[in-house]
Design a protein that fits this description.
alpha+beta, Aldehyde Oxidoreductase, domain 4, Aldehyde Oxidoreductase, domain 3, 3 domains, seven-stranded mixed beta sheet, homodimer
């Protein structure tokens, strides 16, 4: 490592979240808290059927209700107003509904209560159609079609990949395992429910306050909606208030946002639509269920020879970013461990279920569940220690994987070591107790899934050494403002509290592709660092004249600008800034910087180095299985990650803890239960959200590899915490009681059934 | 002129104010409209006496009132918390009051009504002292002292200036006139009354929404108040809401702002203090009354030989920027017309009256009233035509005045011509009708009265050619956002509506010294232009590669980037921006620029070129005097100005019309009547505000001299409209009925008395 943490003043420090006190004191303003003058309240009416034709809608009673300002149906939505990744989803449906979640009408009224009452007064006559809810059945030739105008329920997607020669490699393998895994619907369970407030100014420019992870892309979506409404050449300002969690749920725009826009324009007043918890469960998106077929093999020494995977994803009735998760699944499939021959086919299939969205890990947890379960099975078959097989096949610095991922820094081995150090993997645990391990690879240096993977930063300093940074990056609770503040403070020799980070307002903040793919620390961090370096150079240039030394000799620390070793040549930064400001031809210090990483879009060959660097990790679990009840208790959990550099270990641990707890829920309890397209458990209790009460003791060893491209060496680490949790648990259960559960979540019932089957 | 208006697409166009519709629809949010969660309402108790000792204050009943959260007296104000130019004014007074306006207590309560009730419950015992209300008497040796710890009521100010040799010049003059003029108290009469809302975050950082013209300097003041409160190293964010007029009234921070801060900190809640109209009259500041002694002479050809002036200014009980107006008075005294020998003494004198503040023109209207009245008297004495004497002595391009002002462009002659063209100056008007003329010089290119006269701008473009500009400049209704938008749009080949101007938020906007001295168009305009040019160069550089031509050949117009004469080499700006963004190593276009004009602070010798350029003007009035009632009717008014370049003639005319109407009120009707320190007419009717109903037909010929340093040649023109109005009217009255009124306002009573005296 080129620099150790002791070289830093602010980076690497456990600085509590800068907005913690505001939030703890109840002063943070969430969308629920914002009230604009004259604001109306919108509500949405959803379909009564999973699949039906709309024969007739009568809104007359709703329109007549006192306090109602507007009622909209599909007829009021401009033809070209469509949402989603392939723009197949109008915000209110016309003529036909394809899922229970489909919007059929909306109202704006002077209170939420009146709006609700108005919804109840809308009379709709439906003609029910046969629904299709199983993606594998939906793929069959004679299956009913979710969208009649398409010839198949299978989306046209390019995921049919073959690197190397899998057939040949399989033949030459010493050991091969093959299996089928399935994962369930889960949802993000953001504690802050969704909402938006739209308002137009006198010139038909739109301001929308909305819970989003993608202010710049949402701005584009809304501009397109405005165009569809006939409002050309207008401005859209997206302001993201403080939000209570994102986890990928806010990577697309939602019907409620576009409906708020339509209502606000019709009423000429601000219109707020805010979800309650039931609506949050039913009308926001999920991590889609997957059916995963995996076959992989190794030679007699345990070296992986090939990996052949096939995925079927339930897309739901419409298409959002969930349909693009196969591209992230490709990453672990092609690149978790060294494996030269890879085959991968993925199919996203329309059903009459709720449509899916991005969620933390973005396909990686699903794929890794299969891969890492299968790795243990392969190790057992080959008679190789399960830690050893991972060491043998570990990724290494300098590798280029079949997909074309270029591994720069790689701490996977150290992560495996860290897990092994904490838990016993010798099979000598007490009865019913077992340990499991699973590794991960994830993008850690951006992810080019859009034309630009960039982020801008603007920085200005005042006369005293305080800094305002406008970042394109979006904080959604993860603490990006701390990270930016610490990076800028480190570069300029200031304290984190000297840095004010302004984010989430498209009028003010430069463009950014969004808070996804664990990219914010790396990309927004590099953008802010770039701006700080420019400002630093300007200060050095000014100080260079003042001190009569070359600019590069001038350093910054503890709010002092100085030439090391020359006590005469030193000045408090504030004084220097004032000198620069109040001299003839004076200036204030400002800079802007746009950072677009040098990563690649996957081209037609579906190859490319999608990220500047990759994060690695290994998770270890120690569980106890109650053989009478099937209940799994997690006794210990170790989550070791190669993070490049921990800008703030406290926040990093927070990310890891949160990720692991989310992963444990995924592994053990959480599931959106869906019956014929209808969500049956729209509440935290029946959803079985893993809560603080369920959380276990987690150790989170931090491996620092000082990535050459990361800001101060950092990689992104937002998602990895939840990626290999389920297989680590599944592997531990197998170690404990010898049953392998291949279907998430691993409920006591499934364990009991498996135990019964094993003991029969 | 190097460029004519037809060379421009956006500059020179009559584009209505960009915020006009918002304001007309009642959607603009003034301080009165802003309500923050949990907000309390503050009110201030003022002194019952012009001069008294405070013997005892009992706040117990107020504290006990239900709904009251805090009661403050002078005892609660930190010792070092002082306001004003020489920091002589604590926001709440302790022990002693020196004017009726002195604050003695303040409360915060859950409603304004309860706050008012609480004030009524505060019991104060005073011991009245002798007050001094006449500044000339206050200068006498045995006068009572306003501030006992000072040895004199006369402020220590440097205004004792002698350029050339006045004594010699006087002896050599062919004609000399000498007189005494007086001007009254007037006040700004902003339609939006004053107010502020202060709130602290959990870390004791302050946000203050306040009606100010100086966000950056106010931030500094508030930082100092925080320091005085023991809150070191904190952040202050100043947000200026939309305000209903400034006119100089908001160039300093006021007691109510600091009191709101104290209350907000004590209550840990947002506290709003908003003035009603009576409070606005009584507790905001005035244009100070002046007593002006002037002597000037000319040779037998009418060429000015010397000017000798002495000013006495009523400073009131405390010191704000009003005390610095002598430095602006110096400008016309030294530099209106060519005059080589100048003597000038000014004294600001403490009295127990209300303290004075900056007001549009900043001393220039007072000085010009005397100078231009005296010019007519001198012309008459010398037997020279009053237009002719002005032409003889007119400033000319290339001059350097005794004070050191460097006259770059000068359209004074054209202004005089324009006035002469519109009105008859041959003395042949009908009986009781007369014409008058008066000229002006004013700073038109900034005014260095502070360490920096600079302004910053940050500019960012989106993917479609829309621009956000963050300016340090402060709009207070004058339309700065239009000016910035037009300048940036012109430079980048866009429409004004493509430019979003963000101002008046210190977190977002770069530093600026404030909206004063008619500097915003020039200084903020140049800053925005500088940023636009930087962005333009970046686009040119990118397009240069694309088109394979040198960057400087690439032009911008109508949202097109093109090489003139080569139709192949042309691309819509939006498309080019997207190309730049979505290419490898892509970037968004951003730039920052700080412009500090190359003007000078007056040093110890009280010489220096305080502005980069100067605006000139000549006003002409045609009045009819009713000899029975003394009433003066303004029949016609011409206000010709050398504006360099009219960026927006519509807004420019608005500035001139508004200035002239303000000047007419100053000339004819408006006065704050003060009796023994007490304001007697705190309402628009008794103050006799010149209203729309009283406005006269005004012609505003625009003289364009294309200033070399101005943005697209523009000079500042915010203040001049009200500068020479009073002498133009006074001169017209003299022309009409042969009486010269030397005391403003020229009420019917004064005219009648003068007519009677003349006819006796």
């Amino acid at each position: 490592m080129s620099k150790s943490n002791s070289d830093f003043s602010v980076v690497g420090k456990r600085i509590p979240k800068l907005d913690a006190a505001q939030k703890a004191m109840g002063r943070a303003e969430y969308i629920q808290d914002i009230k604009l003058p004259g604001m109306l309240y919108g509500r949405i009416l959803y379909s009564k059927y999973a699949h039906a034709n709309i024969v007739k809608i009568d809104t007359s009673k709703a329109v007549a209700l006192s306090g109602v300002h507007a009622v909209l149906t599909g007829e009021d939505v401009p033809e070209k107003m469509k949402m989603g990744f392939i723009k197949d989803n109008p915000p209110i449906k016309k003529g036909k509904v394809c899922s229970f979640r489909d919007e059929v009408a909306a109202v704006a009224a002077i209170s939420p209560e009146i709006a609700k009452k108005a919804l109840d007064l809308i009379e709709i006559e439906y003609e029910e159609q046969i629904g299709i809810f199983d993606p594998e059945k939906a793929m069959e030739k004679d299956s009913p079609l979710v969208h009649g105008h398409l010839k198949s329920n299978v989306l046209k997607m390019p995921w049919d990949i073959h690197y190397g020669d899998v057939e040949k490699a399989e033949k030459e393998s010493a050991f091969v395992v093959e299996d089928r895994f399935t994962t369930q619907w889960v949802t993000h369970c953001c504690l802050g429910t969704s909402g938006a407030i739209a308002l137009f100014d006198a010139n038909d420019n739109l301001t929308i306050h909305t819970n989003t992870q993608i202010p710049s892309l949402a701005q584009k979506d809304f501009l397109e909606s405005l165009k569809a409404m006939g409002l050309e050449n207008k401005r859209v300002r997206v302001i993201k208030p403080i939000i209570g969690g994102g986890f990928g749920s806010k990577l697309d725009t939602y019907a409620y946002e576009h409906i708020a826009i339509l209502l606000a324009h019709k009423c000429r007043k601000p219109v707020k639509i805010a979800f309650d918890r039931v609506e949050e469960f039913k009308a926001t998106s999920t991590r889609q269920p997957t059916i995963i077929y995996i076959k992989q093999g190794c030679d007699k020494n345990g070296k992986l020879t090939f990996r052949d995977m096939r995925m079927v994803l339930d897309n739901g009735a419409h298409t959002s970013w969930g349909a693009t998760t196969p591209s992230v699944m490709l990453m672990p499939i092609s690149s978790l461990y060294r494996v030269e021959n890879v085959k991968y086919v993925a199919k996203c299939v329309y059903t009459n279920n709720t449509y899916s969205q991005a969620m933390r890990g973005y396909g990686n947890p699903q794929a890794t569940f299969a891969i890492e379960s299968s790795m243990d099975m392969l190790a057992e078959k080959a008679g190789i220690d399960r830690i050893e097989i991972r060491r043998i096949n570990r990724n290494q610095s300098g590798d280029e994987t079949p997909q074309g991922l270029k591994i720069t820094t790689c701490g996977l081995e150290e992560c495996i070591d860290a897990v092994e150090k904490e838990l016993k993997f010798d099979g000598k645990n007490e009865k019913g107790v077992g340990t499991g391990i699973a590794s991960l690879i994830h993008v850690g240096g951006g992810a080019r899934i859009y034309g630009s993977d960039g982020c801008g930063a603007i920085l200005k300093m005042d006369d005293y050494g305080k800094v305002d940074v406008f970042t394109g990056g979006t904080d959604m609770g993860q603490g990006l403002d701390n990270i930016i503040a610490q990076i800028v403070a480190e570069e300029l020799g200031l304290l984190a509290e000297d840095i004010n980070v302004v984010h989430s307002d498209t009028d003010i903040c430069p463009w950014d592709v969004g808070a996804h793919a664990s990219r914010s620390t790396f990309v927004a961090g590099n953008a802010a660092l770039g701006a700080a370096k420019k400002v630093k150079q300007k200060i050095q240039k000014f100080a260079s004249k003042l001190f009569d030394v070359p600019a590069e000799k001038i350093e910054f620390k503890d709010k002092l600008v100085f030439v090391p070793g020359d006590q005469e040549k030193s000045m408090p930064l504030g004084k220097l800034l004032r000198k620069a400001h109040f001299s003839p031809g004076g200036t204030m210090l400002m800079a802007e910087y746009f950072y677009d990483p040098d990563n690649q879009n996957m081209g037609k060959e579906l190859k490319g180095n999608m990220s500047m660097t990759y994060s690695f990790g290994a998770h270890g679990a120690k569980v106890k299985v109650d053989e009478e009840t099937g209940k799994v208790e997690v006794l210990e959990y170790v989550a070791a990650h190669d993070v490049g550099r921990a800008i703030n270990p406290l926040l990093l641990e927070g990310q890891v803890y949160g990720g692991v707890v989310m992963g444990l829920g995924y592994a053990l309890t959480e599931e959106v239960t869906v019956k014929d397209g209808e969500i049956m458990n729209a509440n935290f209790r029946d959803y079985k959200l893993f809560t603080a009460k369920d959380a276990v003791k987690i150790k989170a060893p931090i491996i620092e590899t000082d990535d050459k491209d990361g800001p101060f060496g950092a990689k992104g680490i937002g998602e990895p915490g939840c990626v290999p949790t389920a297989p680590a648990i599944a592997n531990a259960i197998y170690d404990a009681v010898g049953v392998r559960i291949k279907d998430l979540p691993i409920t006591p019932e499934k364990v009991l059934v498996a135990l019964k089957k094993k003991n029969d």
